[in-house]
Write a structure and sequence with these properties.
The protein has 188 residues and is mostly beta strands. It has a single domain, classed as Lipocalin. The chain has 2 helices and 11 strands, in the order αββββββαβββββ.
C-alpha cells in the first residue's frame, strides 16, 4: 500500500513538473532576423532573411528552455537584387549548397521571470560554433486575438563570420557581423 501511494505521488510530481513546460511556435509574421556589417569601415550594410521557422520550449518555473530556429538562406533580402545574389553565392552564404542555417539554444539565463540570454550553437555553411544571444525586452502576454500566450523579445549577438569559413573581403569588409533577432512565439 505504501509503495502504491509513493508511486502515485511520484507520478503526480513528475506530471506537475512536466506541466510547467510549454511549447511555442515561432510566429514568422512577428519574427525578423537582421544582419549588420560595416562596408569598408564606412556605411553599414543591412539585410534580413524572410523565411524562418522554429519552436521554443520554455519552463519558466524551472528557468529552462530550448529554442530551435531554422533560416532559409536563399530568402536573404537587402533590397538590392545584385547584392542579394552575391550574398547567396559561394563568397558568402553559399545558399545552393547550404540552404539552411540553424540555431539550437538550450542554456537559458533568467533574471526573475525574464529571459536575459540564450546560449547555444549556430550551424551555418556546414560548421557549428557557439553563439550567445543577449535578450532585451523579453515578455509574455495573453494575445486577445489568438486567445493564447505569446512570448518574445529582442535578441542580439555579434559573430565572426570567418569562423564559418566566410572570409570573402576581409579585412576591407570586417569579420564581425551583428545579428539582431526580433522574435515572438505562440503557445501551442
Amino acid at each position: 500500500m505504501k509503495k502504491a501511494l509513493l508511486l502515485t505521488a511520484l507520478i503526480a510530481a513528475v506530471g506537475a513538473a512536466q506541466a510547467q513546460s510549454a511549447t511555442y511556435a515561432i510566429d514568422p509574421t512577428h519574427t525578423q532576423i537582421v544582419f549588420e556589417a560595416k562596408h569598408f569601415g564606412t556605411s553599414t550594410n543591412r539585410g534580413r532573411w524572410d523565411k524562418k521557422e522554429g519552436t521554443v520550449t520554455l519552463d519558466k518555473a524551472a528557468k529552462t528552455g530550448k529554442v530551435e530556429l531554422t533560416i532559409d538562406m536563399a530568402s536573404i533580402s537587402t533590397g538590392i537584387g545584385p547584392f542579394d545574389g552575391h550574398l547567396k553565392s559561394k563568397d558568402f552564404f553559399n545558399a545552393e549548397q547550404f540552404p539552411t542555417a540553424k540555431f539550437v539554444g538550450d542554456k537559458f539565463t533568467f533574471n526573475g521571470d525574464k529571459v536575459t540570454s540564450v546560449a547555444g550553437e549556430l550551424t551555418m555553411l556546414g560548421k557549428t560554433h557557439p553563439v550567445t544571444l543577449t535578450a532585451t525586452g523579453f515578455n509574455c502576454y495573453e494575445n486577445t486575438r489568438l486567445k493564447r500566450e505569446v512570448c518574445g523579445g529582442d535578441f542580439e549577438a555579434t559573430i565572426l563570420r570567418s569562423q564559418w569559413g566566410m572570409g570573402y573581403g576581409i579585412p576591407g569588409i570586417p569579420d564581425s557581423v551583428r545579428l539582431l533577432i526580433q522574435a515572438e512565439a505562440i503557445k501551442q
